[in-house]
Amino acid sequence: MKRSGLSAAWLLAASILMGAAPDLPPGLPQRYRQWLEEDAAYLLGPKEKEVFLSLATDRQRELFIEAFWKQRDPSPDTEKNEFREEHYRRISYANAHFGRGGIRPGWKTERGRIYIILGPPQQDITYDRQAEVVPVQVWFYQGLSRYGLPDAFSCVFFKPDPASDFELYSPVGDGPAKLLRTGGIDPADYQTAYSRLKKAEPEVARVSLSLISDEEENAQRPSLASQTLLDNIAQAAFRTVKADYAVRFLKYKDIVEVEYSAHSIDNRATLAVIPDPSGISFVHYAIEPSRLSVEAVEGRLETTLETNGRVTDERGRTVFQFERKTPISLSREQAESLRSRPISLQGLFPLAEGVYDLALILKNTVSKEFTTVEERLVVPARTRALAATPLLLAYGSQSDPVQNEMRAFKLNGLQLYISPLVEFRAGERLFAALGLLGSNEERARARSVRFDILDKDEQALATQAVRLPEKGGSETIPADFELKGLPSGEYRVRASVLDASGRTILAESARFGLTPVSYVPRPLVFTDPMPDAGSAVLDYLLGGQYFNLEDFGRAESFSREAHRREPSSPRFALGYARVLLAQGRLQETRDVLEPFITGGGAEATALEFMAEACRGLGEYPRAARVYDDYLKRFGVKLSVLNGLGECYLRTGDTDKALAVWEKSLELNPDQDEIKKAVAEIKK
């Protein structure tokens, strides 16, 4: 089939029509080859195909296929997938009605491809009774603008000779001359060919220069917009589906549970690193999943959202991990409101200074859907110098004097209501807040903060000035604007910190949009709080983070403080003992753990740490008893077996040492040092 002027998109589509197989893994089973080359050939986008071809197991391929159809399901909360059913119906129809008697099955013909992608036309007319015109079919479509196509257009098919199948007509690639049986016309002489075609079959002539309804009457030569239309049809099947789900599937298929991995959904999210007046920085986050599925339980609609967070440093080390479960219980009225408004899960956690990568996974336990957020985080070092927090913009604020807990986007008792959709409508109020950090002396340099709303030309359209106490006592500075008289568009709020002379010494800004619509959905918020900045929990968490960063000085400082605040807590004692043990401070390790070993209720880690400390101090009989207690209560562990073997050897009981180490080698034969010790005993 010779064509000119076809784009790369259409040539790629044509290669599928002609049966050109893509590069497939040599061992790909036939059922997946068929799915790739036939079932989903016209639906699969480039990124989706790339991900599918990178999968290594049949289980992964099955889950991907499930995710593929799930993304296209118009009603994902039901068992029926209307899109998939309609797609296979179209394939069956194409095989039954197109390509009969030809060498290609119906789904591979050009009519079959258009039918499968766009569905049945609103009108289908065949012109095959004129001796001067080749057989032509004109399919008329309307109302497919969701695919990025014109509201009304035609697809034209023609049969160049009796032995061929119908081909898709391109005004640019073919031209009116291709629709005439008689030769002798230069293909580039559009007007002559068009005139002859119009005399013979006016309706065919009408679509020969343009396929787009608005252009048909006035076209003078083949329409380039018609070629763009054909290119867009070639991509229409996957342009309405974001390929992000495929990327998430590939990245998290080995992390999230099997039942979740095929059900990836989108989200909106915002994160901010905000230092607290105590100097500790917190990561605040808000995640709005694209949908929320619930189940009915005793008259209410419920689910549980699980948040898994992982923070890694630039060396790939895991610095902090957490898992939180947030039960969601809604009245039927609240659940009904979620049709027009999102749900927002918000939380915060402390983080040591440094540069990190954060991965958040949010899972819905009812629907088995998950969504992810990935962000680069920069946590500033503590400083006494004057500094500012990020400027936060909110759709609401409220004074919250509760001191025993921290909440996401709560600054110094001021709770801000934040949404990742930083968009407002005319007449709403916009709330802004800026935090000032540093010593009282440094903050005393700041005498006022000026808030400006700036347009795209950096012109100030509204201004508020806030005076600050001379002693530097203010840590959070709020402002609010009534958004009246501003046209819809993009704006920026700038907060300028001024000294006594009115000179700007700090500035922060944030963008927002003003929309002409009458309703901006505000989320239903669920928050995971944390204890306040003076709690032992925060000291413990930061101690663990610095330990993972191998900063043992600060790890010890925070862990010791957590233990001092709550000396009866086994959790905090273990955190402190871990740091001491890593530094070889064995006597202190033993002293910290001693109160938690007696009575038979010690945790596994406490027993292991205690045994290691005693062994390092040369207290082998005591260490052997603690190791033995561990094995009886918690089962076999290689490091415990090997430590126990050394204790037996040091106390002269070589038979027990040999038995323990031989057991260790049964579990893991690749232990050269243990092999050598066993050989020495046997000599």
Descriptive terms for the model:
683 residues; alpha+beta; Immunoglobulin-like; Serine Threonine Protein Phosphatase 5, Tetratricopeptide repeat; 3 domains; five-stranded antiparallel sheet; five-stranded mixed sheet; 27 strands; disordered N terminus
Number of strands: 27
Distance between the termini: 84 Å
Question: Biggest sheet, open or closed, and with what strands and sense?
Answer: 5 strands, antiparallel
Question: What's the helix count?
Answer: 22
Strand content: 25-35%
The CATH topology assignment of the largest domain is Immunoglobulin-like
**The CATH C-level class name of the largest domain:** Mainly Beta
Percent helix range: 25-40%
- Describe the global form: flat
At the fourth level of CATH, the homologous superfamily of the largest domain is Macroglobulin (MG2) domain
Tell me the domain tally.
3
Secondary-structure-based class equals alpha+beta
